[in-house]
Amino acid sequence: MYRYGEKRTQRLFDVMLKHYRYFMLIDTGAYHVQGCLDKVRELAQNTGLQLVVAEGGLRFLKKLFTGPYEQGFCVIPKGGKVDISHFGPAQDVSARQFVQGGI
Fold first, then answer.
1. Would the pTM count as exceeding 0.85?
2. Digit-coded pLDDT (tens) for 59-77
3. Which contacts qualify for 4-13: CB closer than 8 Å, 24 or more apart?
4. C-alpha–C-alpha distance, residues 44 and 95, integer Å
5. Where does residue 62 rank: exposed (0-12), middle (13-18), buried (19+ CB within 10 A)?
6. How distant, in Å, are the alpha carbons of 1, 37, 42, 79, 101 from that of 61?
7. Distance of CA 72 to the CA centre of its chain
8. In terms of Cα–Cα distance, which of 88, 10, 103, 3 is closest to 53?
9. Within 13 Å, how many C-alpha atoms sit on residue 83's CB side?
10. Where are the alpha helices (DSSP H) in 29-72?
11. Is 22 helix (H, G, I), strand (E, B) or coil?
């Protein structure tokens, strides 16, 4: 924000996050979620995204950073359209998953 000013920074964020709806915090057990929530809520609010906290492990994140991207990943080509079918069959939401204000 200091480099571009508040209005330009907001426009940049609006463009970058145009197709996002959620700001997700993944509870991997590697940190204390309660200690992060105030900052994460602020970030979600500032970006206009809905906060979602979901339980998850480190395996998926490690695979995301190191590859290869096989089962469990969907690689969409640049300019490609993402739809619900890319996420596989519907699954029940874990009792640990909740949206902003649920804690």
1. no
2. 877 888 888 877 777 888 8
3. 13/46, 13/47
4. 22
5. exposed
6. 29, 20, 23, 24, 26
7. 16
8. 103
9. 2
10. 33-47, 58-66
11. strand
